[in-house]
Amino acid sequence: MQINTPFFKQRAHDALADENLQKALAKLKTGFPEKRAIAVDRMPEFEELRNQGRDLKNHIMEHLDLYLEQFERKVIENGGHVHWARTADDANQIILDICQQVDAKTVTKGKSMVTEEIGLNDYLEANGVQPVETDLGEYILQLRHDHPSHIIAPAIHLNLEDVSEAFHANHHRPKSNDPAVLMQEAREMLREKFVAADVGITGANFCVAETGSTIIVTNEGNGDLTQTLPKTHIVVTSIEKVVPTLEDMTLFLRLLARSATGQEFSVYNTLSTGPRREGDQDGPENFHVVLVDNGRSEMIGTEFQDMLRCIRCSACMNHCPVYGAVGGHSYGWVYPGPMGSVLTPQMIGIEKGGMLPNASTFCGKCESVCPVKIPLPKLMRHWREDEFEKHLQPKAARYGLASWAFFAKRPTLYKPYTRMASWLMKSWAGKDGRIKKLPLASGWTDWRDMPAPQGKTFMQAWKEQQKTKTGEQR
Amino acid sequence: MSATIKDSSTRSQTSRADIFANIRRGLKSDSSDTQRQQTVANRLSAKADNLIPARSQLPPAEQVELFKTMATEAAAELIELESLAEVPQACADWLTQHHVDQLNCASDTELSTLDWQPLDEQQIGRNERVAQVGDIASLTCSFTGIAETGTLMLHSSAQSPTTLNFLPDNHLVVLHRSAIVGCYEEAWKKLRQTFGETLPRTVNMITGPSRSADIEQTLQMGAHGPKTLIILFIKD
């Protein structure tokens, strides 16, 4: 996928002016967060589940190599194949090779963010294999040559009219504005595709080391048809998804649906273990798991290891004021919202992804709803520090900070200059005490007035307060 | 083509070595670290429970009531029957009412040995095969029901093809009252008792019928899986 992260500012600007997008985002803000709150209220143990989820994920990361080895062993024991992909490129070639081995013409796909991350669809298509997205949201996006703007509700940026138009243009049926009719249309269109596909590709929410199973968590049932009907099932997932046992997987299942859609449990939680067994009348004859790294193994042992706990529920973006204002496409790559702001620089480099960790107010809401308690604001701050150390920020920001630091380190200069600046700003303000335009701060004053400093400077006020305090103590 | 396969398998091998080297470097450990190995072996063999919510540890009778409440909340239909022998009549009634003239059944002995006369009387066809596009209704057994969220657990077998659970528009499932457990953990234990170390190819946990909210965040029932899920609840 094309990387547009450096253009975050412009994209966010456009998103704010996009009426249709704003209509869609308004719905999101009340939808998922309210449903999550209700589900959490119904589960008195939720907070303790979060603590256990955090601790278990930490345990897994401390033993990641060993659990991966065990998982690999079990998949092979069950008659499946395991492939390792250090980079997106490795993953794409491995997947294409599996498809070519079975002379695949078409491939059905369940929803998978890892395949978005590696750009699988474009790669397959360029090499003569036609991918067919079967998740309703992803299907709509494929028809529109669009990309997901949310990790679990990929078409959340679209309105009914957009879907209606896309279906009308592609299905050659009378145009409808009834969501039920549109969904039935997609159901009918995809039925034959499911059966005709040579290969089915799904992601995995978790990989169970104990049994060598992968699990998908879905509501539509497309993932199940994708992995059951074709002769070959390829699971494309990433290395941090491994969990020790079925019991350990269960801990995360209790957290996942509630944090994501606010459901008690998703409709379909399906475990796949190897290819079809002797006597089975359906199910795939070949079972492959492609374990993608793409920068994750390098996060182990660093300050970003905490990010590997992420179970991709989307709670952080659902509650994020920035995501809620500008939507997922503004972020310019695959993963949006707070989790995307931490992951993206890791995957595409801080040089390109540096805008994202800066697009946060650090309000902390994301961390407070994260089912595995990832300190997202802290991790975004790490990226900002990294960016500063590598001299990647815009010159204005760097010189601004440097000159402030010069004064801040010299109190005899700092005190009179802040007094002067405060006086200057007061004189710029109108009668209402607000500044309409401020040099070097148009990013603020273009949209709102800047309140002029009132009364004394902080240093003056501090000094006086200390005096009174010491007076009182006497 | 063989050249690319070889290349692809080399890529996988090289990747594997790099990935493990990175992880072990990050953890400042190597594969011969026996303490970590022991920790992992212990966890895998203990299969210990994590926190189980109080909700799913009720006395059996209340557990059954919770199952019914949660399954209904997830939009499953519940038909209560006195015994397994009533299943054919219940199917005949439901299918007639919904103008369906064909039922595709799993071939579990429990189902195939029933007296299917009631279907014949309504001229409803019955067969035992994998599901096909266009199938309207299927009937399968379930392995257990999990009260915590009203979830059915089914698994694939020679008698019970997985497509029956997903392709037809309507899915009828037999569940015995005695098969209901409180939490998922009990279901895993039951699976291990039945199958030992190797799980069936597919284990399905199903909570209500298929749905999607991908069009304008409006919840619609019946996306790609069954539009209705009917639980034939046997009170024995």
TrEMBL record, chain A:
<protein>
    <submittedName>
        <fullName>Iron-sulfur cluster-binding protein</fullName>
    </submittedName>
</protein>
<keyword id="KW-0411">Iron-sulfur</keyword>
<dbReference type="GO" id="GO:0006089">
    <property type="term" value="P:lactate metabolic process"/>
</dbReference>
<dbReference type="InterPro" id="IPR017900">
    <property type="entry name" value="4Fe4S_Fe_S_CS"/>
</dbReference>
<keyword id="KW-0479">Metal-binding</keyword>
<dbReference type="GO" id="GO:0051539">
    <property type="term" value="F:4 iron, 4 sulfur cluster binding"/>
</dbReference>
<dbReference type="GO" id="GO:0046872">
    <property type="term" value="F:metal ion binding"/>
</dbReference>
<dbReference type="InterPro" id="IPR037171">
    <property type="entry name" value="NagB/RpiA_transferase-like"/>
</dbReference>
<dbReference type="Pfam" id="PF13183">
    <property type="entry name" value="Fer4_8"/>
</dbReference>
<dbReference type="Pfam" id="PF11870">
    <property type="entry name" value="LutB_C"/>
</dbReference>
<dbReference type="InterPro" id="IPR003741">
    <property type="entry name" value="LUD_dom"/>
</dbReference>
<dbReference type="InterPro" id="IPR024569">
    <property type="entry name" value="LutB_C"/>
</dbReference>
<keyword id="KW-0677">Repeat</keyword>
<feature type="domain" description="4Fe-4S ferredoxin-type">
    <location>
        <begin position="301"/>
        <end position="331"/>
    </location>
</feature>
<dbReference type="InterPro" id="IPR017896">
    <property type="entry name" value="4Fe4S_Fe-S-bd"/>
</dbReference>
<dbReference type="InterPro" id="IPR004452">
    <property type="entry name" value="LutB/LldF"/>
</dbReference>
<dbReference type="InterPro" id="IPR009051">
    <property type="entry name" value="Helical_ferredxn"/>
</dbReference>
<dbReference type="InterPro" id="IPR024185">
    <property type="entry name" value="FTHF_cligase-like_sf"/>
</dbReference>
<keyword id="KW-0004">4Fe-4S</keyword>
<keyword id="KW-0813">Transport</keyword>
<keyword id="KW-0249">Electron transport</keyword>
<dbReference type="Pfam" id="PF02589">
    <property type="entry name" value="LUD_dom"/>
</dbReference>
Automatic annotation (TrEMBL), chain B:
<dbReference type="InterPro" id="IPR003741">
    <property type="entry name" value="LUD_dom"/>
</dbReference>
<dbReference type="InterPro" id="IPR024185">
    <property type="entry name" value="FTHF_cligase-like_sf"/>
</dbReference>
<protein>
    <recommendedName>
        <fullName>LUD domain-containing protein</fullName>
    </recommendedName>
</protein>
<feature type="domain" description="LUD">
    <location>
        <begin position="110"/>
        <end position="234"/>
    </location>
</feature>
<dbReference type="InterPro" id="IPR037171">
    <property type="entry name" value="NagB/RpiA_transferase-like"/>
</dbReference>
<dbReference type="Pfam" id="PF02589">
    <property type="entry name" value="LUD_dom"/>
</dbReference>
